[in-house]
User: What shape does this take?
Amino acid sequence: MTVEFLPAYSPELPPAERLWTLVDEPLVNQSFETIDEIEEILVERCNTLNNLKKEIKDLTNYHWLMNP
Assistant: This one.
């Protein structure tokens, strides 16, 4: 992944915002006893997302974004 800086005002939703549906899926409607539990799930989810490159590109690749 690379960090893409956006202007302070973007009329369209920043592309990263679309990733929340993939990131928060295992956290929705759950309760956790400790921060460590949440951290463990987030680390697992990040590892999973690392293997979902096509899905991430499909969610975040606006027509006006340049391809690296």
